[in-house]
């Protein structure tokens, strides 16, 4: 079926020629999506704009499109590709909008496809899967499965969307037993560049299935994830606060934890350096411990719990909904985060902590308003990658390495746009300082975790030449015209690799 006659296209282009992007929005309305369009000046537009996690990520499109189902997403893609032959129709796609930098899940003057209304969660007993729309958050998923005693391998923070996290790989509390989040997806429903809807799994479109697991938004729009489910229930977890003077013990404990994870793969630990000046005028450690079985204070955390002087402790037997909400951050600040991967070397962790305190001093002297800084240290043991090949493989390239690693993430947030340059420059300095030191010691590592990466990092390149070649082959097959490279310009683009 032809979407438009030639005369109608010409008339529409003429009527909207002076309004950037309005032709593309109008084209969507003409094909029957007018009730799904949201324009500036309406409360629903502001509500959608405010769903971005970081205020700095909020780009104002010409319109938001809020589809209700996959067929509407497919129609939107077909329409935008057709309209692009008359007027450039750039678009963005947003699931949860948790990436902190502008342009990853939004666009200025174009069309932002907001998937937030595609958030249904359903359990299928016949094949033990949980189907969730790409616009669902992990809170949507956990609130549902906690009630029915099921569990999936998923995210750790409530408002993170499924789409961006799974397509970026995804770390979880279950990683030592189950692998990365993307490795525990049974099927993805995908809208391709020509509007075709396909399933990607181990039996259908297996090449697409593999590259979606870490390849981000380069191949299509995933509208539904079918997640492998298993018996769930409560687990042990929470946050423990320690004085800053325990740094030596914290870093030794997290390295030991990663090295011994195979002995008890139910455990997960994150060491977090925190400075929250609105709460306390001194840096501290706020560690997250989770054990995916309802065992009180399991011995896997013994070294951490033996560190003296803990200030507070929220750990206990809880459900995943409660744990995800505990890590939730309000969407009221501007945010910057990035990532480094290093080999497990305590010297680098101490260097990172020293740099953390240096940045605290600089920001305390110059920053205005409400602000905070955190530095996260997470084990990334070789064990995590061993599950991938059993489930169709992912594209992250971690299976190339047999060493235990540490994921480092500096995280800064602030309230005033006038401080953007200050905080962004300090975030960059922090990462550069640690990366340089790690290289001097020979313990740096090429892997860049896409879900934490900053806009100037290159996660796709870090997957290795073989995996980049696989992604290019899949992109040429499923998107030969480069719709998801050029019409959807945001995020980490395969077309910009090397």
Give the class from helix and strand content and strand pairing: alpha+beta
Beta strand count: 19
Helix content: 25-40%
The geometry reads as globular
Q: For the record, give the distance between the C-alpha atoms at the N and C termini, rounded to a whole number.
A: 40 Å
Q: Under the CATH scheme, which architecture of the largest domain would be assigned?
A: 3-Layer(aba) Sandwich
- Subunit arrangement of the protein: single chain
Major sheet, described briefly?
9 strands, antiparallel
Low-confidence stretches: none
Number of helices in the DSSP assignment? 15
> What would the CATH topology of the largest domain be?
Vanillyl-alcohol Oxidase, Chain A, domain 3
CATH class of the largest domain: Alpha Beta
Strand content: 15-25%
The average pLDDT value, as a whole number, equals 95
Rg over CA atoms: 23 Å
Describe what you observe in this structure.
GO terms for molecular function: FAD binding; oxidoreductase activity. Keywords: FAD, Flavoprotein, Oxidoreductase, Signal. Belongs to the oxygen-dependent FAD-linked oxidoreductase family. This protein is α+β, with helices and mostly antiparallel strands and 498 residues long. It has 3 domains: 6-114, 2-Layer Sandwich (Uridine Diphospho-n-acetylenolpyruvylglucosamine Reductase, domain 3), CATH 3.30.465.10; 121-232 and 461-489, Uridine Diphospho-n-acetylenolpyruvylglucosamine Reductase, domain 3; 235-452, 3-Layer(aba) Sandwich (Vanillyl-alcohol Oxidase, Chain A, domain 3). The protein has 15 helices and 19 strands. The protein has helices spanning 6-15, 22-33, 43-49, 70-83, 138-148, 162-167, 175-178, 206-212, 247-259, 302-305, 320-326, 346-366, 420-441, 465-478, 483-487, and strands at 37-38, 63-65, 91-94, 111-114, 121-124, 129-133, 150-152, 185-191, 197-200, 221-231, 235-243, 267-275, 284-291, 312-313, 316-318, 334-337, 340-343, 371-380, 405-414. Helix 5 (138-148) runs antiparallel to helix 11 (320-326), helix 9 (247-259) crosses helix 12 (346-366) and helix 12 (346-366) runs antiparallel to helix 13.
